[in-house]
């Protein structure tokens, strides 16, 4: 059995307007999410593909669904487009 497909790069977006700094993501994936100061969330927008499961756990743990996860091969939606 082979796994030919290379791991796809991840793209992570956190809606910081929605984020309430609960910190669940920091506990779930401390290598990707961290707090800067008391409440400002920082995150790695292109985490290592090997961390996908951690990041998925963090997204699932977020009480306000502020974490979006996509693939680098998918075109990033540009702000303002598609909202007509
Ligand atoms: S779990 Fe969600 S609300 Fe909490 S800090 Fe992370 S992104 Fe923000």
Strand content range? 15-25%
The main sheet orders its strands as: 1-4
Bound molecules: iron/sulfur cluster
Q: Largest sheet at a glance?
A: 2 strands, antiparallel
Shape: elongated
How many strands?
4
Structural classification = alpha+beta
Given the structure, what is the number of helices?
A: 2
List the secondary-structure elements in sequence, H or E.
Answer: EHEEHE
CATH architectural name: 2-Layer Sandwich
- Tell me the name of the CATH class: Alpha Beta
Q: Report the end-to-end length measured between terminal Cα atoms.
A: 47 Å
Instruction: Quote the CATH topology.
Output: Alpha-Beta Plaits
> Into which percent range does the helicity of residues fall?
10-25%
Mean pLDDT: 85
> What radius of gyration results from the CA coordinates?
14 Å
Question: pLDDT under 50 segments (min length 5)?
Answer: none
Total number of domains: 1
Give an overview in words:
The chain has about 80 residues and is an alpha+beta fold. The chain has a single domain (about 10-70), classed as Alpha-Beta Plaits (2-Layer Sandwich). Helix content is about 20%, strand content about 20%. It has two helices and four strands. The protein has helices at about 25-30, 50-60, and strands at about 10-15, 35, 40-45, 65-70. The strands form two sheets. A two-stranded antiparallel sheet has the order 1-4. A two-stranded antiparallel ribbon has the order 2-3. Strand 2 (about 35) and strand 3 form a beta hairpin. The chain is elongated. It starts with 9 loop residues before the first strand and ends in a 13-residue tail after the last strand. Bound molecules: iron/sulfur cluster. The site of iron/sulfur cluster has 13 residues, from helix 1.
